[in-house]
Write a structure and sequence with these properties.
The protein is 41% helix and 22% strand. The chain is an alpha+beta fold and 873 residues long. The protein has 5 domains: 208 residues, Immunoglobulin-like (Sandwich), CATH 2.60.40; 112 residues, Neutral Protease, domain 2; 133 residues, Neutral Protease, domain 2; 125 residues, Immunoglobulin-like (Sandwich), CATH 2.60.40.1910; 160 residues, Zincin-like fold (Alpha Horseshoe), CATH 1.25.50. The chain is globular. The N and C termini lie far apart (65 Å).
Length: 873
């Protein structure tokens, strides 16, 4: 493998041979033994003389007698096969050197139908009491090699022709339309598909099962006719839930075809719900696969937040059909080129479809702030990050690649103007279609259109870890800006503080300050005085940085005008104040006083309350120990009680208007937060709704369940009722909601049952374990028991169950262990993993330990002042 001074730094296949085309046949699919057989023929071009062929494989059996190699003149004798299973490749050695022309390789092999949501794998599901199975693929990042021997790297693009032999009662689909279907003498069908465009191996896909579909068409014509779009589900009552996706997908395809100035290039587009799925979705070209809750939505039964989820995830994956599939990054170190752009433009598509949702305000709270939170850790990583091997790849599918990547794109698009930015994107796609590209290629195209040195402006944002905090003060000199790297713990060293960012100021002020950006450590706008006018930099919070105002500016120019700021500005102000309290740039007591000041001014703005709720939850996680827990609950009661009671009265009087989406989400947010705070009126309302479950509005199910679960009066019958939604869910989102709610329980007899269910895949599928793990690790009544249970059962259960798909274990570690806050817990977790194999989730573990240390320092620094302040209130 190439990882030398001459070759790339990462473990790559040699470049002597380049794949041109694959003919792939999959047959003898045995779902009793979970095996299948395959036959792959690969056409390769000889780039440099060689007597070896390197191919990736995993869980595949290949024998020398089943390999045949020819060139244009003769059959080439094979000397040996050299297997490197730990590195997932084998080498076929020839008896002579090939120097030019084509090489044709045919391999018959045996393989495994996986059960871990990777490669070619099975999903079991219930169809009216009968257990059935569907099979489908998940090849990103490096799992095509589980299904067939291949050159499994994004740069090694080729065309594919797929043939699947399977049961006659199956529907069999792949990336391209069916070319022919025949029946064998054994009573099976053989389905051959049309040739694919040139693409990477990770985008190949197929699915087999008892499917049905709903079909719609684009308004625009593609190759002379509307594009057919099908949403597939298994039979058994799911197809009605596919209507939302069927309505919005054609509109998004038309929207992207317009803004990218390239029509969707394939002759069809299928989206399919897969019962077992580790992520939300996968953008396979022409056959996009989804977790059920990311594609299907029932307007009378589903929580309305899932409507937004479906709209966004559908849009995100459709964006990849151009950005990722048509043009692909050269190597996984630039994954952000796929994911960051698809995230930003996915939000843009949702905003196009549903402008009333104000989706970019929510982006600021849920995406930008999540990116800043992760990137404020010492063990974060640059957007463009070195990736050496397969297990490194999975770890960069994180908030940096997706959300910081998307946030930097939002920042530069705001600076240039969205139309100019998208013109540059269209040029990039046109220049690089059906090929591979780099960040430099993207910035060059945008720079060509905009006339700005985008490569230079964005270099630090993409290549350096972290982001800046901008300090702002107004003194005798004028308006003074300074920048330095921001760490959540505030303990940045001089070595960590060398980067200098280009910072677009995007100022909101009564008067122009005369500059739109700066790229020095310090900048002074001489003579400029703010007075008492409204002032904020980073207007609409579209820049990837934090702001720390002097006390004078904060009081006179920010808080005094708080009501007049946009939703996005309010979110940014709250988030920055909370983050600087944690880092020590401000005090926690100042933040709590600030919250008291602004709460009466928040009105019913959903996203502002969402951000406030997150920051207060983080505060409570760190400071709510045995001594202060009741004081913190009282503080939070003062924030939420009157608003929650007002909402209950409004609902009792006027009901819930489903057409007012933001109001529905606002009410659910407030009631769910208030439900865990022992407010009698709120608890009684939840109890009343629980007694008549048929009448619970879908938006209030989480509120009702979590309110009862967190109560000291939580009963066995109530527990059993909610737990039944885990084991036998009545709706698409029921299990996810029930697990999230049950994690709020305070009663030890239920905690033991829940903990044991985490290590029983028959009760909680591994793909859903994080929905319970996260709240158990936050809940002050369960977090210590959860940690003890996790560590005690890690080797025998958690690692064994979750490491078969490292994405699942990485995610579980990432979102649970970060919620602890003492030095003792830091040492306990660090020492536990010191002698264990953590390859595949080492970055998540280091980030969790970072968080614990930050939480510990924050608590030690401020807890006495916080307790004194809360006592005085």
């Amino acid at each position: 493998m190439c990882a030398t001074k001459e070759g790339p730094y990462y473990e790559a296949l040699p470049t002597n041979l380049k794949p041109i085309h694959y003919d792939l046949s999959i047959y003898d699919i045995n779902l009793t033994n979970d095996t299948f057989e395959g036959d792959v023929s690969i056409e390769l071009e000889v780039i440099e003389p060689t007597n070896e062929l390197y191919l990736n494989y995993r869980d595949i059996t290949v024998k020398k007698k089943n390999i045949e190699i020819k060139n244009d003149k003769e059959t080439i004798e094979i000397e040996s096969i050299e297997e490197h299973k730990s590195k997932e490749y084998f080498v076929v050695k020839f008896n002579k050197q090939v120097t030019q022309g084509k090489l044709y390789v045919n391999i018959k092999y045996d393989a495994v139908v996986q059960t871990n949501m990777a490669g070619f794998y099975r999903s079991s599901y219930d169809d009216n009491g009968v257990e059935k199975v569907m099979v489908s693929t998940q090849f990103e990042a490096t799992d095509a090699r589980r299904a067939f021997p291949c050159l499994d790297e994004p740069l090694l693009k080729s065309t594919f022709k797929v043939k699947i032999t399977g049961d006659l009662n199956w529907t069999i689909i792949s990336n391209t339309p069916v070319e022919s279907t025949t029946t064998t003498t054994e009573g099976q069908q053989v389905v051959e598909f049309e040739k694919t465009p040139v693409m990477s191996t990770y985008l190949l896909a197929w699915a087999c099962g008892e499917f049905e579909y709903i079909e719609s068409f684009t308004s625009e014509k593609y190759n002379g006719k509307p594009l057919p779009i099908r949403i597939y589900t298994t039979r058994g009552g799911y197809i009605e839930d596919a209507k939302l996706a069927s309505e919005i997908t054609p509109k998004i395809v038309d929207y992207f075809s317009k803004i990218f100035e390239i029509q969707y290039p394939l002759p069809k587009l299928d989206l399919i719900a897969v019962h077992s799925f580790s992520h939300n979705a996968m953008e396979n070209w022409g056959l996009i696969t989804y977790r059920s809750t990311a594609l299907l939505y029932n307007p009378t039964k589903s929580d309305p937040s899932y409507k937004q989820k479906v709209a966004y995830v559908v849009a995100h994956e459709l964006a990849h059909q151009w950005f990722g599939n048509l043009v692909t990054m050269k190597w996984w170190d630039e994954l952000w080129l796929n994911e960051g752009f698809a995230t930003w433009v996915g939000y843009a598509a949702v905003d196009y479809l549903y402008p009333e949702w104000d989706i970019f305000s929510e982006f600021v709270s849920t995406s930008l702030e999540q990116a800043l939170e992760l990137d404020g850790l010492r063990n974060s990583h640059p957007i463009e990050v070195p990736v050496v091997d397969a297990l490194d790849i999975d770890q960069v599918f994180d908030a940096i690649s997706y959300l910081k990547g998307a946030s930097t794109i939002l920042m530069i698009s705001k600076y240039l103007g969205e139309k100019v930015f998208l013109k540059g994107v269209a040029l990039y796609l046109q220049k690089n279609k059906y090929g591979n590209a780099t960040s430099h290629d993207l910035w060059s195209s945008i720079g060509e259109v905009s006339g700005k040195p985008i490569d230079k402006l964005m270099e630090t944002w993409i290549k350096k870890v972290g982001f800046p905090i901008v300090n702002v003060e107004n003194n005798d000199q004028g308006l003074v800006f300074s920048q330095s790297r921001f760490l959540n713990g505030g303990d940045v060293t001089s070595e960590e503080n060398e980067a200098v960012w280009w910072i677009p100021l995007n100022t909101l002020s009564g008067n122009s300050i005369g500059i739109d950006s700066f790229e020095e450590k310090n900048h002074v706008v001489e003579g400029f005085q703010l007075g008492d006018k409204q002032f904020k930099i980073n207007k609409d919070t579209s820049g990837v940085y934090r702001v720390n105002y002097s006390d004078t500016i904060l009081e006179n120019n920010v808080i005094a005008h708080f009501e007049n700021f946009s939703t996005r500005d309010k979110v940014g102000i709250i988030a920055d104040f909370a983050a600087t309290a944690c880092s020590g740039n401000n005090s926690t007591v100042k933040f709590l006083k600030f919250v008291n000041q602004i709460t009466p001014k928040l009105g019913n703005d959903y996203v502002v309350w969402l951000e406030l709720g997150k920051t207060l939850s983080n505060f409570a996680t760190v400071f709510a120990n045995d001594e202060s827990r009741l004081q913190i609950i009282k503080y939070l009661q003062n924030i939420y009680s009157s608003k929650a009671i007002e909402i209950i009265q409004d609902i009792n009087k006027s009901g819930i208007d489903d057409s007012n989406f933001l109001q529905v989400k606002f009410r659910a947010e407030i009631l769910t937060r208030a439900g865990k705070l022992n407010i009698p009126e709120v608890y009684n309302y939840a109890l009343d709704l629980f007694s008549n479950q048929e009448k619970i509005h879908p938006s209030l199910v989480l509120f009702v369940y979590s309110t009862l679960a967190s109560s000291p009066d939580f009963t066995q019958d109530q527990f059993d009722t909610i737990m039944k939604q885990v084991t036998n869910p009545t709706n698409l989102d029921s299990r996810e909601i029930a697990l999230t709610a049950l994690g709020s329980t305070t009663k030890s007899e239920f905690v033991d049952k829940l903990l044991n269910s985490l290590i029983n895949p028959e009760i909680i599928p591994p793909m859903d374990s994080h929905y319970l793990g996260k709240p158990l690790s936050i809940n002050t009544s369960t977090k210590y028991k959860f940690l003890e249970f996790f560590l005690n059962h890690y080797d025998s259960k958690f690692y064994k169950i979750m490491s078969t798909n490292m994405v699942v274990l990485d995610r579980f570690v990432k979102i649970t262990l970060r919620n602890y806050q003492t030095e003792q817990e830091f040492k306990q977790i660090e020492q536990f993993f010191a002698n264990r194999n953590i390859h595949g989730f080492e970055r998540a573990l280091k980030q969790a330990l970072d968080n614990i240390k930050i939480n510990s320092h924050w608590f030690e620094r401020d807890h006495k002042d916080v307790e004194a302040y809360l006592s005085s209130k």
